[in-house]
Design a protein that fits this description.
3 domains, Aspartate Aminotransferase, domain 2, Arc Repressor Mutant, subunit A, PLP-dependent aminotransferase family protein, transaminase activity, eight-stranded mixed sheet, Aspartate Aminotransferase, domain 1, alpha/beta, PyrdxlP-dep_Trfase
Length: 470
């Protein structure tokens, strides 16, 4: 490998692993040259590569620094949902999005889908191929109701990285995180019970609440720090909340990471009022910062946190491999899992367990964090250039979706219908509320298609809004 590329790779790894934080000054050119035994020009070329990737920035007469995200557009204000339990609606809108457009598409911003063409996935695909060739019978018989033991052992290792000390027996494998959320809701609540949720919140969680005949109580939520603890406490005083459903680490749709102290405060509040917490951690492994943020589950001393996740966002949704660490609700979760879908397919579990064990999963995550961060920054620049004045955006700390709040005069649902005619598919904000709020908002993924295509789609949307604004 060319020396400067090798050095750039070493430096990138140090940045990704948190040895240098955003804003930190990097070693001088002369210092690095002496440390690595290379020429000054080699170090300068390495720094140039990292500049082009947006990881570092040069400051006149000061040297090189780890890049910080500049917030040029205002963030959305804290949400103000109706603070009373509500029946979840809007299934038809969600179904319409899920069933697809059917025509030729230019850019699909609506799905939260990871990059599935990355070279770092090839060992996983090869493993799956070999399993299908040589162990097909394993995929045709019943498996363990809790999931493959080898996979659960690897889940235990991953959980340790998020601050939780869990054994293989503490996990129940599910068909993705959507089933995990559904099973957890049915394990902790009964018909008519109240579930406190973030607002805006993931539409799949909202629909799981609807399917279980529960009511959603939307809690004001900030795009930086997440659910308001003060508003949640008022809600717990006023309503018989049975559980709190949150996505505190790389939230969907806003992308924030709740500060660690606030996660602990939320857990302590749940203890005080004796309610369960259903923690959706599906994006946690693709948080940009390293080490990855700790979960609320890491504070759990009495088993009240049901931790849910899957590989749908970190690897690919088609594997349908998710899991629950249900704590004190393990027996109920196992029963409901059994009567809803019994065992999960075995071969994907075996392939993913091998992928993690051999180090492929961590290599893939490192690569995706770089790609997703770069795509986020490009998307934010595109929105700034193309969208009307007064637009507000979230600044995701991981994953690949962000939240856009247009000025109140715009109807995102109408815009989505117009955009569909141009092959641009959007996810209107009303789906992320139990009752259809956020009609001026949209959730975007920022990794569909290539950067030039995404920018062209944003320009088209900007022109549409300009035409509607006259």
């Amino acid at each position: 490998m060319i020396r400067y590329l090798h050095l750039a790779g070493r430096l990138k790894e140090h940045i990704q692993m948190g040895h240098f934080a955003p804003g930190d000054k990097l070693p001088s050119v002369r210092q690095l040259a002496a440390e690595h035994g290379v020429s000054l020009s080699t170090v300068q070329e390495a720094y140039r590569v990292l500049e082009q990737e947006g990881l570092i920035e040069a400051r006149a007469r000061s040297g090189y620094f780890v890049a910080q995200l500049r917030e040029r557009i205002a963030r959305p204000a804290e949400s103000q949902p109706p603070q009373r339990p509500m029946d979840v609606s809007l299934w038809e809108d969600v179904l319409d999005m899920l069933t697809g457009y059917g025509g030729e598409t230019f850019c699909e911003f609506q799905y939260a889908m990871p990059i599935m063409t990355a070279p770092t996935l090839k060992p996983l695909l090869k493993s799956l191929y070999e399993l299908n060739r040589h162990r097909a019978q394993d995929g045709m018989s019943y498996g363990n109701i809790q999931g493959d033991l080898g996979l659960r052992e690897q889940l235990s290792r991953l959980a340790a990285g998020a601050g939780s000390h869990l054994e293989a027996g503490d996990f129940v494998v599910t068909s993705g995180c959507q089933e995990a959320l559904s099973v957890c809701l049915r394990s902790v609540a009964e018909n008519g019970d109240v579930i406190a949720v973030e607002s805006p919140g993931f539409y799949g969680a909202m629909q799981a609440i609807k399917a279980a005949n529960l009511k959603a109580l939307e809690i004001p939520t900030d795009s930086v720090a997440g659910m308001s603890i003060e508003a949640l406490k008022l809600a717990l005083d006023q309503w018989p909340v049975k559980a709190i459903l949150v996505t505190p680490t790389v939230n969907n749709p806003q992308g924030y990471v709740m500060p660690l102290a606030k996660k602990q405060a939320l857990y302590q509040l749940a203890q005080e009022y004796d309610v369960a917490i259903i923690e959706d951690d599906i994006y946690g492994d693709i948080a940009f910062d390293y080490p990855r943020p700790k979960t609320i589950k890491s504070f759990d001393t009495d088993g009240r946190v049901l931790l849910c996740s899957s590989f749908s966002k970190s690897l690919a949704p088609g594997f349908r491999v998710g899991w629950i660490a249900p704590g004190r609700y393990r027996d109920k979760v196992l029963h409901i899992k059994y009567v809803s879908s019994s065992m999960c397919p075995t071969l994907p579990q075996l392939a993913i367990a091998s992928f993690i064990r051999q180090g492929g999963y961590e290599r893939h995550l490192r690569a995706m964090r770089v790609l997703y961060r770069k795509a986020r920054d490009g998307m934010l620049k595109g929105i700034e250039a193309c969208f009307p004045e007064g637009t507000r955006v979230s600044y995701p700390e991981g994953g690949f979706v962000l939240w856009v709040a247009l000025p109140d005069r715009f109807d995102a649902t109408r815009l989505a219908e117009q955009a569909k005619q141009q092959g641009i598919i959007l996810a209107p904000g009303q789906m992320f509320s139990a009752t259809g709020k956020y009609r001026n908002c949209l959730r975007f993924n920022y990794i569909d298609r290539d950067p030039d295509t995404r920018l062209a789609a944003l320009k088209t949307l900007g022109n549409m809004m300009s035409a509607n604004d006259t």
